[in-house]
Design brief:
Shape: globular
Number of helices: 26
Oligomer: single chain
Order of helices and strands: HHEHHHHHHHHHHHHHHEHHHHHHHHHH
Largest sheet: 2 strands, antiparallel
Number of strands: 2
Radius of gyration: 28 Å
């Protein structure tokens, strides 16, 4: 191999490692306010550009190598089939597919997995340390928010980190917690392994490795332990406790030893009953800690099962839960009318259980692929020297899975980044792999390199072009929302029009655009855009905007249906009821207006506000106008 090729290969390896360190260290910290939903979209943009740069260095690495080498495991094959099915289901089996940041992330993470499968295990350990450092940054940032030195990303919470609320923030911290705890418990093996692999006799370098891998994980544990309780995320607490107990048991075997020392049957039974009692008490306490939130999630799961029953085989398509869920919630309340569940219902984008949401979107066939992948993953037999790393990776994945039972980690890119890294690590240390390698002839080598370079250049160009368009689009969309908020509706519409081709399959964008069109009186155009939005998303906001537009063009039956659908979606909300009552009053349907006004006045208030007081006042005016006493009953 030529000296130049050796230099280029080493350069590409260093470039890949530097980019990976920057990705794992910086991506969780990114939150740019100039973007729409900046805590999500700015991370996605950074991720896409980083993937493009990784691809460039990876192509350089491949074309400079003389030997073509492939190593794959059963886990690789199962993941390939799982992702392949999701893509096939999205584009071929389903009728509609919309713009999806989650899908962009899925493609990028799939590519990242390939990159991570080609790094050395020594570098994997350094990346693990990078993940812990990233978690420390977030824990410190959250503490600064809590103390008032930094601004939160949500008006309702003092602490969110670089995320949009404490839930995903806590989810990221708990995904790092498992890694930090595992690294600290097995620090001796990690340090000795790294020192032997680096083959550096320098005392200072070996001492640096020792101190870094001993104290940084400990610092990570302390910093996360301080901030995690303040997030008030019960899902994160459960995940942290569960993963900690498992890691401590795997390291010290205290439960196994305790059970082994219990020589008589009564003692073993007592230990089991005590453990069950502690677990039950803990879960009961967590459920009642924020009971209304717990009841809300149970209700969402209940409605979600109806979605599964209607499309059990292939589901509704990747990232299309939000397209259909609110229609099912509306149907549920239309059938069951006023129940205690109305007080916990709201516009919902997630199932708060990733496994249920996965079945809704990808069907039982997709879930079968997922379970096979999970089975293969946890059956991975690591090489002897890396069994401890297998335990850390599997426990980290288990912690994320526990969190996924009660929250939405698969919507959060930094958590998925940790997940993909842990999965790739397991595949890297799998002792049962298949290898293909062959030396290329000079002619084939040049042909192969040319094809790789051309295809790679096209992919890099298209990725950068698409990321650039998205980058501009997210900024313009945010400017449009700001213009709407300040009452400059014409400027907002102009901004929406300029990026319509980029986001014409995004339900949130079309909802914002359609609502602004309705406000300025472009009712026919608003109806067209809002109906288009319902192909990708449905919420009470879309239905009330449709109702306003239909009312303005005197299509009263459609207006009433839209308002009623909004009411059925979230019966506890006053605003849709108010709009329907005003519609009845304005359209001369006095009897219906009076009945609904009376109902609104007697309606239970979930959260008192000035807006509700004003609605009550207008309802009293309707009753007085139609000369009905406040105690009137139909």
């Amino acid at each position: 191999m030529l000296k130049t090729e050796v230099i280029l290969i080493n350069f590409s390896k260093v470039g890949l490692l530097v980019l990976l360190v920057m990705l794992f260290l910086l991506l969780p910290q990114i939150s740019i306010s100039g973007y729409v939903q900046g805590t999500i979209t700015s991370k996605c943009i950074y991720f896409l550009y980083t993937c493009s740069a990784l691809l460039a260095f990876y192509i350089l690495y491949v074309v400079c190598g003389k030997m073509v080498f492939f190593s794959f495991s059963k886990l690789d094959v199962s993941l390939f089939l799982l992702v392949g099915y999701i893509i096939l289901n999205r584009y071929v089996i389903q009728t509609y597919f919309g713009f999806s940041i989650r899908y962009l992330e899925l493609v990028g993470l799939s590519f990242l997995y390939v990159i991570l499968r080609n790094i050395s295990l020594a570098n994997s350990l350094w990346l693990l340390l990078t993940i812990v450092i990233s978690g420390i940054f977030q824990a410190v940032y959250g503490n600064l928010q809590l103390l008032g030195y930094c601004i939160s990303n949500h008006s309702g919470f003092k602490m969110t980190g670089s995320f949009f609320n404490p839930g995903p923030y806590a989810g990221f911290l708990v995904s790092v917690w498992s890694v930090a705890l595992g690294m600290y418990l097995f620090k001796i093996k990690i340090i000795s392994q790294l020192q032997s692999q680096t083959k550096n006799d320098s005392f200072l370098f070996n001492e640096f490795i020792k101190k870094a891998f001993e104290y940084i994980p400990l610092l990570g544990l302390i910093s996360i332990a301080i901030v995690l309780p303040a997030t008030q995320s019960r899902a994160a607490w459960i995940a942290a406790i569960a993963s900690s107990v498992i890691l401590m048991e795997l390291r010290y075997r205290f439960l196994s030893n305790l059970f082994r020392k219990a020589t008589i049957k009564f003692q073993k039974t007592a230990i089991v009953l005590f453990s069950v009692g502690i677990l039950s008490t803990g879960l009961f306490s967590i459920y009642h800690y924020k009971k209304s939130s717990s009841d809300g999630r149970i209700f969402i799961w209940k409605v979600t099962t109806e979605m599964i029953a209607d499309t059990p085989v292939f589901g509704v398509g990747f990232d299309r839960f939000k397209t259909h869920y609110m229609n099912y919630q509306a149907n549920y309340f239309e059938k069951n009318r006023e129940t205690r569940e109305t007080m916990v219902a709201d516009n919902t984008y997630y199932a708060f259980n990733e496994f249920l949401q996965f079945i809704v979107e990808n069907g039982l066939i997709g879930f079968m692929f997922l379970m096979v992948t999970a089975f293969i993953l946890f059956k991975v037999k690591a090489k002897e020297d890396y069994k401890y790393l297998s335990l850390v990776a599997k426990t980290g994945l288990f912690g994320i899975a526990v969190f996924a039972c009660f929250s939405y980690p698969m919507q959060i890119l930094p958590i998925k980044l940790v997940l993909v890294f842990l999965v790739s690590t397991l595949s890297n240390i799998d002792g049962d792999t298949y290898q293909l390698k062959y030396n290329q002839s000079k002619e084939r080598s040049w042909a192969f390199k040319t094809v790789i370079l051309v295809l790679g250049a096209i992919c890099i160009y298209q990725t950068n072009l698409y990321a650039s368009n998205l980058n501009k689009g997210f900024i313009v969309w945010e400017n449009a929302l700001n213009s709407h908020q300040y009452g400059d509706y014409n400027e907002a519409i102009s901004a929406y029009k300029s990026v319509y081709t980029v986001f014409n399959r995004d339900g949130d964008f079309l909802m914002n655009y359609g609502k602004t069109l309705a406000i300025v009186g472009e009712y026919h155009k608003a109806i067209e855009v809002l109906k288009q939005a319902k192909c990708f998303l449905n919420t009470s906001v879309i239905e009330t905007s449709l109702g306003d537009s239909y009312k303005a063009i005197k299509q009263y039956n459609k207006a009433e249906a839209a308002y009623q659908n909004a009411i059925n979606m979230i019966p506890s909300h006053f605003y849709p009821n108010y709009l329907l009552a005003k519609f009845y009053d304005d359209s001369g349907q006095e009897q219906k207006a009076v009945v609904l006004a009376q109902k609104i006045l007697s309606k239970k208030i979930k959260i008192p506000s000035t807006a509700i007081d004003e609605i009550h006042e207008e309802m009293r005016e309707i009753l007085v106008k139609n000369k009905k006493p406040l105690g009137f009953k139909n």
